[in-house]
Amino acid sequence: MTAQLSKKGEAWSARFSEPVSDLVKRYTASVFFDKRLAEVDIQGSLAHAEMLAYQKIISADDYAAIQKGMSQIQGEIAGGKFEWLLDLEDVHLNIEKRLTELVGDAGKRLHTGRSRNDQVATDIRLYLRGSIDDISGLLRDLRLALLDLAEQHADTILPGFTHMQVAQPITFGHHVLAYIEMFGRDAERMLDCRKRVNRLPLGAAALAGTTFPIDRERVAKTLGFDDVCRNSLDAVSDRDFAIEFCAAAALVMTHVSRMSEELVIWMSPRIGFIDIADRFCTGSSIMPQKKNPDVPELARGKTGRVNGHLIALLTLMKGQPLAYNKDNQEDKEPLFDTVDTLTDTLRIFADMARGITVKPEAMRAAALQGYATATDLADYLVKKGLPFRDAHEAVAHAVRSCVDQACDLSDLSLEQLRVFSPLIDDDIFAVLTLEGSVAARDHIGGTAPRQVRLAIQHLRQQLG
Ligand code: ARG
């Protein structure tokens, strides 16, 4: 008796004397989550069948029958009519069984020279490649939305912080550009990871390759892979490409989370730097005055689960001997959830960036507190010939005296300022203004409005 997809569905039935229990069936099945791979599974099968026919391993008629059957299956899946059976364990066996029902022996020949091990590795790579392309597009959208915000506020001044203490005045455009840089590196990482995702495992079969005269490069070309995986054992077993993707995704979420933290702080009525459009916020069921920034808070929270998926995949991989082990079936849910979380988050953030209202007066008022231009005064003294450490000391005394009098450095008269250094002249007042302070940082990467505009122009060219 030959092994076949029996009525009960086990592809290996002849080898077994008793069926698995319902619990084991449920435990080992993956169909309810891996059916998401159906489209790429069919794409991979069609490329494999085309090659088998080209190499005369199956007949042209068989290939035609497989094509016809698969197109019907695609229709059934798209129309929600396909019956997914737990008994058939996973997406691969479900589709193969239906194909055989539809086209008979041709369907049974599809699996020649192939194993589910190289099949599933191919499917995940195809799926992930598509996801990376979508995510790259979403990162671009987000950067474009943030560029608009940066451009509107190239001149808007707010305090820049270190240690959450007012440090120096900066422009809001410059602050937003910092996130655009982060998301730019995230996009680079996605593209780089894509190179290693885009290699074909098919042909590795179960682990050692196959005795049939296959043409792997032909399949790679059909499926748009840049190369074939060069070692069959490695091809079916390693999921480093998925781990790499999850690491890149964790970094995107980390950047989203940092930005979320700032949005939440800025929107707090205590700070009041921004408002976020109502459609991204919710109220409280008990406190009528509340408008909560739920979207950034949730994004910050979801960063935890994406980081968790990275650790899950690393842990999944670390104890596995070569080659394929069933452990690898556990790669899918973390990977899928990472893709879903990242996709939704990026989409919502691009929308939300367009729904942010900046309150320049509040930002300005905050920048006027905390002696944000103290460094400018020190730099001024250095330019007049004082060594920096002495300038630092002189300004520290000036700040201390302002703290005692509860005033700002710019509130001191020339006479009062000269107490701290005779080098101070009346050209100091231009230096102590917020505008003077930001405009003076006029070099690549600096906060001057002119530099912010140049950076925006450069990025727009880059993003096309
Ligand atoms: N559902 C399996 C997975 O996701 C497919 C490969 C099964 N291979 C095997 N030898 N049992 O990894």
UniProtKB/TrEMBL annotation:
Name listed for the protein in its UniProt record: Argininosuccinate lyase
Pfam families reported for this sequence: ASL_C2, Lyase_1
PROSITE patterns linked to this entry: FUMARATE_LYASES (PS00163)
Pathway: Amino-acid biosynthesis; L-arginine biosynthesis; L-arginine from L-ornithine and carbamoyl phosphate: step 3/3
GO molecular-function term, one example from the UniProt record: argininosuccinate lyase activity
GO term, biological process aspect, one: L-arginine biosynthetic process via ornithine
All copies of domain Argininosuccinate lyase C-terminal, residue ranges: 371-439
Superkingdom of origin: Bacteria
